[in-house]
Amino acid sequence: MKKILVIQQKMIGDVLLSSILCNTLKKAYPEARIDYLVHENTIPVLENNPNIDQIIRFTEEHKNSKKAFFKLGKKLRAEKYDLLIDAYSKLESWLLSSMSGAKKKISYKKLGRNFIYDINVPYANSPKTNLGLAIERRLSLLEPLKIESFYEPIPKLFLTEEEIQTAQNTFSDFGVDSSKKTVMMSIIGSEEKKTYPLSYMAELVNFIGENYNVNILFNYFSKQIEQTKKIYNLCSEKTKSKIFFDLLGQDLRSFIGIMHQCDAIIGNDGGAINMAKALNKPSFIVFSPWIEKKMWATFEDGINHCSVHLNDFEPQLFTDKTEKILKKESESLYQSFNPKLILPQLIEFSTTHFC
Predict the structure, then answer these.
(1) In sequence order, what DSSP letters do the residues of 312-332 get, joined into one string?
(2) 94, 158, 269, 274: which could join 13 in a potential S-S bond, CB 3.0 to 4.6 Å?
(3) Do 84 and 189 reside in the same domain of the chain?
């Protein structure tokens, strides 16, 4: 095996999770060149990964220009890959896989495009382990290679000493008390339908601030500052005194450095949670009603990685409803997801990690 291409063009969490394919392939074939094609805005989670020899950028130009797209396909073909693994499996990657001319191509089994790939792997419907379905499905793409003994199922982030030191200096500059545990609160989701209601999230933040001697950081983007202020303003003065509202990363790499200094993360599912897990930080996730918990509840053990979903408490609300319907009804379903349902498990998690 001389040249291998892995494709995963989606969001940060997807790209980070699919990097386990690169990590495993490099371990199994140390002399091979491992290339990873991803959307350019996800590249920071791959920096310094020694298992990736070349990151191939998929840009907005590739998305919007047929000329640029086919130029990329021509570039891939010129590489003469021995193996291509398409973990994205959408129209863009189908076309790129077809144009690549790779000797062997592997992807998921999907009606109407199986002819593109040499091996089509069926989707698993339920997880067999606590790795979670998102991880298990990705590993299933490697099964035809018979390299199970080399599996690296846990995504990893690679920080430099300079990045770690910069984050430590940032904590010091903001006066963060290093004798206390620090918890990152993922208070705003990647979209409204993935965001726990602000008043409810404030109750969770307030519970942590009122009951545990911790430093609290908020994870949010600048465009989300008004929503973030609403949560902050709903907190008690005691809790506010523990929140370092302006301690933010200037970019994705600096956020990773800051997360490295934290002791746990609590909040909405999303890229921040996946990055925290890749840094081996305990996590407590509040899932959106329309997201399948079995897919993204990775490494769930009830101690270091815990999660809650409305379906755990009110299963009758989900009877005979498709993902499309659940997404449409997410706002009303969220209103049923009262913090009182969550607190017993949050207490157990917080007592374990903050006392």
Answers:
(1) HH-GGGGTT--HHHHHHTHHH
(2) 274
(3) no
Same domain, 210 and 79: no
> Tokens for 104?
């062997």
Could you tell me if 255 and 248 are in contact, meaning their C-beta atoms sit under 8 angstroms apart? yes
Does 92 have pLDDT greater than 80?
Answer: yes
Please give the pLDDT value at position 297.
Answer: 95
Domain count, the chain: 2
In this structure, the dihedral spanned by the alpha carbons of residues 205, 208, 213 and 218, taken in order and rounded to 10 degrees, is -30
Q: How far apart are the first and last CA of the chain?
A: 50
Whether residues 97 and 241 fall in one domain? no
The answer to whether residues 186 and 335 belong to one domain is yes
Domain residues for the domain of 99 are 3-150
Antiparallel, parallel or unpaired: β 54-58 and 33-39: parallel
Q: Of 150, 173, 191, which one is at a domain's C-terminal end?
A: 150
Identify the residue whose tokens are 């790779």.
102
Are 19 and 157 in contact by the 8 Å Cβ rule? The answer is: no
What does 136-168 look like in DSSP terms, one character per residue? Answer: HHHHHTTGGGT-GGG---S------HHHHHHHH
CATH number at residue 303: 3.40.50.2000
Kindly report the number of other CB atoms within 10 A of residue 6's CB atom: 26
pLDDT band at 94 (very low <50, low <70, confident <90, very high): very high
Task: List pLDDT tens digits, range 119-173.
Answer: 999 999 999 999 999 999 999 999 999 999 999 999 999 999 999 999 999 999 9
**Mean pLDDT over all residues of the chain?**
96
54-58 and 83-86 as β-strands: parallel, antiparallel, unpaired?
unpaired
Within the chain, strands assigned E span 3-7, 33-39, 54-58, 83-86, 104-108, 119-121, 181-186, 214-218, 243-244, 264-268, 283-286, 305-308
What is the per-residue pLDDT for 9? Answer: 86
pTM score, whole prediction: 0.94
Give 267's strand partners: 186, 285
